[in-house]
Amino acid sequence: MLYVIFGTLITLIFYLLKKNRELERRDRVKTEFFMNITHDMRNHLNIILNTSKLIGLNVDKSLNDRINALRKNSYGLLKLINNLIDMTKVENKFYSLNLENNNIVAVVEEIVQSVSDFIKDKGIDIIFDTEIEERIMAFDKEKIERIMLNLLSNGAKFTPSGGKIRVNIYEKNSEILISVKDNGVGIEKEKQKYIFERYKQVKEGAVSEYGGSGIGLSLVKSFIEMHDGQIILNSNYGSGSEFFISLPCKMINNEECRNINKFNVEMAMVEFSELMDKN
Ligand code: ADP
């Protein structure tokens, strides 16, 4: 009797292990398929974008609006595809950080300056303030740009004209603290719990007009955690939100401090695409 039970258990374990391997294999195939498709989509889209830019240089003024609509909507699609690619990479742990010693204060300031026209065009005031002039530390510049652009574009999306966005930098106990604070619509208490979760787009009242995939903040959190940092949200529904980032000040040994390469303005166009006029 005991032999039968034991034999059945062993067979069951082997069956489950085999099933599990099969599921893992299918999952891998699906992920690879998804990655190939999204990369392909991005390549096609980049061709459309570059072509529309070229056409825009030569067309009659009457067609300018159409070309602009084409570009703005292409940037919106590019944002979605980039987020899908990054989300898949993060979920499958394909991401590694490209850490370089750099001046975090200058990098953040440069991003704020680069998007300040977009924000001011919406009638929102943008203020940058820092307690420290310079802090050289190791971080992935492109990821910090993505984080800041997401927080700033959200701030601009959910703050009405006449509002204010403040970006402040401090240093405390070997950590760099970056605050992005707006006095916009704010986020309801119960929704704050899952705001950093994937796929949980918070849709309600005034904010629902802005579509979006709800991937942005989950990526922001992942990128910050890859730096061993943290992000906290303080928000009062109706009076604004503050996203508070802390990053440990680490350095890479034997690494020269990088000069700041110019910020890629195209990245800002992609992130702010939802704020542009769609037609
Ligand atoms: P998406 O990728 O679609 O832009 P995010 O993950 O960046 O989505 O943001 C998710 C949701 O969180 C937004 O749709 C919005 O409802 C809410 N949210 C994010 N930032 C703010 C903010 N500063 N003020 C009010 N709501 C916000």
Give short descriptive properties of this protein.
279 residues, alpha+beta, 17% strand, binds adenosine-5'-diphosphate
Tell me, briefly, the overall form: globular
Radius of gyration: 23 Å
- Count of alpha and pi helical runs: 7
- Helix residue percentage: 40-55%
Main sheet: strand order: 2-4-5-7-6
Order of helices and strands: HHEHEEHEEHHEEH
Largest sheet: 5 strands, mixed
Could you say which small molecules are bound to this protein? adenosine-5'-diphosphate
Account of the 3D structure:
By secondary structure, the protein is an alpha+beta fold. The protein has helices at 2-58, 64-91, 104-121, 141-157, 189-192, 216-226, 265-271; strands at 100-103, 125-130, 136-139, 164-172, 175-182, 230-236, 240-248. Strand 6 (230-236) and strand 7 (240-248) form a beta hairpin. Helix 2 (64-91) crosses helix 6 (216-226). The protein is globular and about 80 Å long. The site of adenosine-5'-diphosphate (ADP) has 19 residues, from helix 4 and helix 6.
Question: Layout of helices and strands, plus pairs?
Answer:
Elements: H1 2-58, H2 64-91, E1 100-103, H3 104-121, E2 125-130, E3 136-139, H4 141-157, E4 164-172, E5 175-182, H5 189-192, H6 216-226, E6 230-236, E7 240-248, H7 265-271
Parallel strand pairs: 2-4
Antiparallel strand pairs: 1-3, 4-5, 5-7, 6-7
Helix pairs in contact: 1-2, 2-6, 3-4, 4-6
Summarize the structure.
Helices cover 51% and strands 17% of the residues. It is α+β, with helices and mostly antiparallel strands and 279 residues long. β6 and β7 form a beta hairpin.
